Amino acid sequence: MVVGLTLWDHLPLILDGQVIPIEKHPATIALSTRTKGKQCYDFKREHETLILEITWSYVHLGEIETESNAVLVLRNVTRQVQAERNLHQVNQTLEQQVEQRTQQLSEANDRLRSESTQLQALLKELRQTQAELIQAEKMSSLGQMVAGIAHEINNPVSFIHGNLTFVETYAEDLLRLLSVYEQPCTNPHHVLHVAKEIDLKFLKLDFLQIVQSMQEGTERIRQIVVSLRNFARLDEAELKSAVDLHDGLENTLMILQHRLKSHPQIKVIRNYGELPLIECYAGQLNQVFLNLLSNASDALNSNASAPQFIQIQTTNIDADWVQIEISDTGTGMSEAVRSQIFNPFFTTKPVGEGTGMGLAISYQIVTKNHGGKIECLQLESGTKFVVQLPCSQT
Fold first, then answer.
1. CATH superfamily of 251-394
2. What is the pLDDT of residues 311-353, one digit of tens each?
3. Domain boundaries in the chain?
4. For every residue of the chain, which 3-state class applies, written as one string?
């Protein structure tokens, strides 16, 4: 008894939210089972609830068996337990947040993988489209070259073909005269008669002139074929260490000769400086020259009676850089057009006459493939393209 109250009345304990009965009180457990133990209980007093750690044990006092006591040791562990509970709650909250965040990251990763797959498919499609557009531009340039080559070759071929009739007639006349000589007991008067019929004196002179002119025609065809091969650089598709840019410019002009000849008022001015042999992709640069010179030709007024000019100027800037300038005396372009001139698909030509890829491809070849620079300048009368290239790609 404690002040008229039993221990159970004086020390009511709560476990798991329920007030424990007498038979489960630590003192009862110690006395009835004669064991020792430890447990945390809630203990309510005036305005607060304490958490008590109670350690109990059985103590035998005296010689009589019934004289036994239970010893209870109480320790206030409210702060420690609340701290542990708070820590446990924080851990649970963190675990939930980590689990939630992990789920969110997993979903985000799934979305990213899906978007990545879509982007890869789109990139593949874009690359395929780009390749098709570049091929279309190449085919457009090839069509221009084929038309020019056909025109250039047609003149000497037509001349040779027309002279073959005369060559055949002269050959037949000479064989006829030769057959007269081969007859036994040939009459000299008959020989002279046949020689007069075939006009042998004129035949000898004209036949030699025809053969010489046919040789000149075949030489012209050979030059065109050589220029075409050099322009295409089919045997130099890889990076070459010693390329003469003037050869590339001249081969390109040869390819465009038919367009320039059809407009006699268009004059090409060459101001070639002393350029070193450079390291580059020759075939690609020839494509750039073709695009720039074709655009310069298109910019000129083919109906004008006054002379118009395309000027090509080459300069050795220093030991590491060379410069090619291609300018024309055309109508020029507005600032709005000039600012978009290297954008893919941009063209000022009518529908069906341009793909809008020529200058875009030229920009890529100069800047990306060669590490060079290209810019378009508006002149007082006309336009100038300035291409700067490094002498070495290393």
1. Histidine kinase-like ATPase, C-terminal domain (3.30.565.10)
2. 999 999 888 999 999 998 887 777 878 777 877 766 666 555 5
3. 7-76, 251-394
4. CECCECHHHHCCCEECCEECCHHHCHHHHHHHHCCCEEEEEEEEECCEEEEEEEEEEEEECCCCCCCEEEEEEEEECHHHHHHHHHHHHHHHHHHHHHHHHHHHHHHHHHHHHHHHHHHHHHHHHHHHHHHHHHHHHHHHHHHHHHHHHHHHHHHHHHHHHHHHHHHHHHHHHHHHHHHHHHCCCCCHHHHHHHHHHCCHHHHHHHHHHHHHHHHHHHHHHHHHHHHHHHHHCCCCCCCEEEECHHHHHHHHHHHCHHHHHCCCCEEEEEECCCCCCEEECHHHHHHHHHHHHHHHHHHCCCCCCCCEEEEEEEEECCCCEEEEEEEECCCCCCHHHHCCCCCCCCCCCCCCCCCCCHHHHHHHHHHHHCCCEEEEEEECCEEEEEEEEECCCC
